[in-house]
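Methods, example record. To illustrate the input and output format used throughout this study, we show the complete record for NADH dehydrogenase [ubiquinone] 1 alpha subcomplex assembly factor 4. The sequence lines were provided to the predictor; the line carrying structure tokens was produced by it.
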Amino acid sequence: MGGRLSRVLRSFNVESRARREISKEKPTPAPRHPGHRLDRLGDRPEIQEEISKKDDRLLSLLKDVYVESRDPPGRVKDGGAEHLPCKQVEKRLTKLGHLGDLDVKKVPKGKISIVEALTLLNNHKLNPQIWTAEKIAAEYSLELKDVKCLLEFFIPFAVKEFPKETRKAI
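The corresponding predicted structure is encoded as:
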């Protein structure tokens, strides 16, 4: 209700208010300072002479300055060559899981895909004596400390079914 009322008041007599604003005389800008103009420099020959005159003292100081610059060693600058990768990342084939075509085929050494992560976590959960952190690190080309952290902090979900008698008690 308040929106309608404010809209009506806003649009009341809009055209006449707009005409009144348009017909007002525009304000004139403030005058510029007379020293502001750079055109006057051309009229005075002593200023032009001062600008074009060489200062011997400043020239001698400039000659004393010696700058030596060297490019960093080992950089080759090619103009139009294609950009080649700086470092070749060594990749390994993944241990394909049950997703097959959807899974990533190659991953860099030291990393694993999601399917591999779920597989190794599940294997460790089912057989922790066989799938130790050392064996997993060797199998998947990972660092031992990373594998230990992975096994400690990431646990796959376990689905538990409660017997019917227990369900009623809950």
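Annotations derived from this record:
The chain has a mean pLDDT of 79.
The radius of gyration is 40 Å.
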